[in-house]
Amino acid sequence: MARIAVGGFQHETNTFAPSKATYDDFLRPGAWPGLTRGEGLFEAVAGINIGIAGFVEAAQAQGHTLVPLAWTQATPSAHVTEDAYERVVGQIVEDLEKLEDLDGLYLDLHGAMVAEHVDDGEGEMLRRIRAAVGLGLPIVVSLDLHANVTAEMVEHADCLEIYRTYPHVDMAATGKRSAAQLDALIDGGGGRHKAFRQLPFMIPLTSGCTLHGPAQAVYAEVRRLAKAPGVSAISFACGFCPADFPDAGASLVAYGDTQAAADAAAEALYDAALGREEAFALVALPADEAVREAMRLAAGANKPVVLADAQDNAGGGANSDTTGLLRALLAQRAEGAVVANLYDPAAAEAAHAAGEGATVSLTLGGHSGVPGDAPLQADFKVLRLGDGRVTGTGPFYKGAHMQLGRTALLELDGVKVAIASSKIQLADQAMLRHLGVEPAQQKILALKSSVHFRADFQPIAEEILVVASPGPVVLDNRELPFQRLRPGLRIMPLGEVFQP
Ligand SMILES: [Zn+2]
């Protein structure tokens, strides 16, 4: 039986987003628990679809002794502040330095964290942790499919295991795979030879969905190669594009019993992805066109047409308060449409003060200064109020105890808008039921999410249309003012090459 330390520090950093992640943001629970250090950690994450929960369950079943470190996450945003980064990494390193007789370390990281003072958040964290625990201790790290993997991360961890699904329905499963990898490494196996490759093109966010198309095929190849002779682990990361630093983009990492085995698997996966470059092209509609098409489809459907307000997704760093898609629905009188969730704590407060059935005059949304967006000034009817406590029931947010803060369902000209006081992407039907909206019975659902909503909503949807209305999760990378990518990287599939 082994003695294993367990912790995590997760942030997906959109360096073009409007707000930074402070220490306070890491303290507060959102979709998942806030900062939890030491005792109480395993209880706080139990049963949730996240990496650490899967790891703990699998490692405890093996009879290992687990030592809790710090674990935290914050909603994606712009840079993690230097203060937050140093405090959280400091806690993990400080606790590790006090521990003796460890056999292994598991960390639940994201892989696309950029701090104010550190480009490669995870690489630097792993460098410090490796310095603290020494070269001999096996370290396994699980990462998000949107990790921007760096050579430093590969160097300082013995194995990186990356999610294989987007929507990420396999976060806990990836934790379980990580537990198996750590077991093998502790037993002296596990394949210590590494091969790391970065792809020469960026994959637009919504093109990384593994429910169809090229990403589905690439991850089928990952699963096949993971079982190849001499290969102990292999992972592919689609990368997170809105991160202006040299390691942004798709990558892969393979581990083998020999360098030749690791290299061969890496080359095969590289070719599988590169050969599908054209198929990764972006498909998205402007808001007015998307609404027109949704109304046409909805007229003959008995299931909802879902519009993905993909660029205003809180899960990608947005504040989820832009009004572009809402305006398009109002302009075309899309009665029966439901917009969810628009982040506006002041509007939620005003709705609660007015009460259900009242009419409130609001300056709704548009507070983030997103180019092309503005608040919507109107009188809304307050249909329903909520306390924002929601437990996820869908495959992505399964078991998550979300705290949306004060919520409200408003109505204007037959269009409903769900308001929340914390930024959590709309990726679970329970978030709508919380306000009395039965998702399957709606005509049009306009959801502030890029892809994760598909896990719970695709089964009830007549059709899903990806919308490009104002928001900082820019899908077409040509619109991002990149300055620091690596020269030669194609910023869109078969698209233009970045030159500094
Ligand atoms: Zn992700």
Question: Could you describe the 3D structure shown?
Answer:
The structure is a single chain. The N and C termini lie far apart (52 Å). 28% of the residues lie in helices and 22% in strands. The mean pLDDT is 97. The strands form four sheets. It has an eight-stranded mixed sheet. The longest helix has 17 residues. The chain has 14 helices and 19 strands. It is of the alpha/beta class and 500 residues long. The structure holds zinc ion. Zinc ion binds next to loops.
Major beta-sheet overview: 8 strands, mixed
Which ions, cofactors or small ligands are bound in this entry?
Answer: zinc ion
Task: Give the termini separation.
Answer: 52 Å
Q: Judging from the principal axes of the Cα atoms, what is the shape?
A: globular
Q: Report the structural category.
A: alpha/beta
How are the strands of the biggest sheet laid out side by side? 12-13-16-17-11-18-10-19
Count every helix, treating DSSP H or I runs of 4 or more residues as helices. 14
The gyration radius over C-alpha positions equals 22 Å
Unreliable runs: none
Which percent range describes the beta-strand content?
A: 15-25%
Protein name: Microcystinase C
Domain Microcystin LR degradation protein MlrC N-terminal: 3-295
Domain Microcystin LR degradation protein MlrC C-terminal: 307-484
Cofactor: Zn(2+)
Provide a compact summary of the structure.
Helix content is 28%, strand content 22%. With 500 residues, the protein is of the alpha/beta class.
Distinctive features:
single chain; 500 residues; alpha/beta; eight-stranded mixed beta sheet; six-stranded mixed beta sheet; metallopeptidase activity
